Amino acid sequence: MTPRNLIILGVVKLALIAVAIGVVFSMYGCNTVRGVGQDIEKAGEAIQRSSNR
Questions:
Q1: Which domain holds residue 28?
Q2: What is the DSSP string of the chain?
């Protein structure tokens, strides 16, 4: 293998690792945003229940 091919292979590996890390963080981010949305929804429901009494 030529040095140029080794460099290209290394760059491709780094790019794939970066994409994989990005996917993992975006998945965790989605779960966090969803959890915050659920918490806000529950708080809104509690306010509605208290105002209906």
A1: 21-47
A2: --HHHHHHHHHHHHHHHHHHHHHHHHHHHHHHHHHHHHHHHHHHHHHHHHHT-
CA distance 16 to 4: 18
List pLDDT tens digits, range 9-23.
Answer: 999 999 999 999 988
Residue 31 lies in a domain: yes
pTM: 0.56
Domain count, the chain: 1
Other beta carbons within 10 angstroms of residue 46's beta carbon come to 10
